[in-house]
TrEMBL record:
<dbReference type="Pfam" id="PF25917">
    <property type="entry name" value="BSH_RND"/>
</dbReference>
<protein>
    <submittedName>
        <fullName>HlyD family efflux transporter periplasmic adaptor subunit</fullName>
    </submittedName>
</protein>
<dbReference type="InterPro" id="IPR058625">
    <property type="entry name" value="MdtA-like_BSH"/>
</dbReference>
<feature type="domain" description="Multidrug resistance protein MdtA-like barrel-sandwich hybrid">
    <location>
        <begin position="67"/>
        <end position="215"/>
    </location>
</feature>
């Protein structure tokens, strides 16, 4: 009996211990971990509003401002001459670029001029009898008529009868036929319209030239233009006469040009406006690729910061009492990497570099380099 009672007490003790331990586990409170306070170090800058120049970047290739594509309007054999018709050859204004053999055509012109002379000579007896008052001027015209020179202008007809008489003999029509032939004869010699250099030669001496055939290109190497396409948003900023700094791709040389022309229409396809920059320099060559920085205008009371510091809500982060905050700003110009802002009071402390995961109320500490510490000491 005693053993039974002891067994029952042992079982009750074990069951009670189990429920007591379970109660202790359920009532035990775990202390919540206290997060460590993280203070990020940030780069800051103090706002000082000033006048910011709006510089528009652009690029393009140089093209000679004065250039001529040479075409033949007549047919014949390309005559050899000096200097040779080769790329790189320089010519002075008025110097013959191309001479085409015109001996056959020249003979027909001389024949027409001779016929005109004979026609006038044939009416001289009638003029002396019927129009003695105009005989002398026509006689002077014949005396000055030289087949080796350009046909002189016909004497001015002073009366209606004289006009009818001369026109009725076919003198006027013969004269204009001769002048037409002389104009075409002049096209057998192509002369330099200005002093320049030959950049392309598509024909050689001795070859047969056909009417409408392209013969080459001739440019003035003393002045060039660069055509640049800019966004239509800059249309109101571009001004003719503005100075432009041009740089080559290696940034080893710079040149100064001016905006010579601005297109009055916007390209409907690309929504861009075309501007032309004129530049002079002995080191420039046609086809050179340059980069330009156009000074469109100046924005007063503004600052310039990196674009990644501007939030989508048109706000930027500022530092107030070691905490980040945001303020509204007014962007006035965007470049590829920078943005010009207004409406920021002087003395405002802003971020100089973007902070990953930044938010308003974030605890920060301004970065101080060794030089800053020395200045404070």
């Amino acid at each position: 009996m005693r053993n039974i009672i002891l067994s029952i007490l042992g079982i009750l003790l074990i069951v009670g211990s189990y429920f007591f331990a379970k109660h202790l586990i359920n009532t035990k409170t775990k202390p919540k971990p206290v997060p460590a306070k993280v203070v990020k170090t940030v780069f800051i800058d103090t706002v000082l509003n000033k006048t910011i120049p709006i510089v528009i970047p652009a690029n393009g290739s140089l093209i000679a401002k004065r250039r001529v594509e040479l075409y033949s309007e007549v047919q014949g054999v390309f005559k050899s001459g000096s200097p040779l018709f080769k790329p790189g050859q320089e010519y002075r204004k008025g110097e013959a670029l191309i001479r085409i053999d015109a001996s056959e055509y020249y003979a027909s012109v001389q024949s027409s001029k001779s016929n005109l002379y004979n026609s006038i000579a044939a009416i001289m007896p009638d003029l002396k009898l019927d129009f003695p008052e105009v005989f002398q001027k026509w006689q002077s015209y014949l005396n000055g008529f030289d087949l080796s020179n350009t046909t002189p202008k016909l004497p001015e007809m002073t009366s209606e009868k004289e006009n009818y008489f001369i026109t009725g003999r076919g003198i006027v029509s013969s004269y204009y036929s001769v002048k037409n032939l002389e104009q075409r004869l002049a096209k057998y010699n192509i002369r330099a319209p200005f002093s320049g250099i030959l950049t392309q030669a598509l024909a050689t001496e001795g070859s047969l030239i056909r009417s409408g055939q392209k013969l080459g290109e001739f440019i003035d190497p003393s002045i060039y233009e660069m055509e640049v396409a800019l966004s239509k948003t800059y249309a109101s900023l571009l001004k003719v006469g503005e100075t432009v700094v041009l740089n080559n791709l290696e940034n080893t040389e710079s040149y100064t040009g001016i905006v010579s022309r601005v297109n009055g229409s916007i390209d409907a396809t690309t929504q861009t406006i075309t501007a032309f920059i004129e530049v002079k320099n002995d080191n420039l060559k046609e086809g050179m690729y340059l980069e330009a920085n156009l000074n469109a205008k100046e924005e007063s009371e503004a600052i310039e910061i990196d674009r990644n510091l501007l939030l989508e809500s048109q706000q930027i982060y500022v530092v107030k009492d070691s905490l980040l905050d945001v303020i509204d700003v007014k962007p006035v110009y965007f470049s590829e990497t920078k943005v010009v802002l207004k409406n920021i009071p002087n003395g405002t402390i802003i971020l100089k570099k973007a902070v990953p995961g930044a938010y308003a109320g974030m605890l920060v500490k301004p970065f101080q380099d060794n030089q800053d510490r020395k200045d404070k000491q």
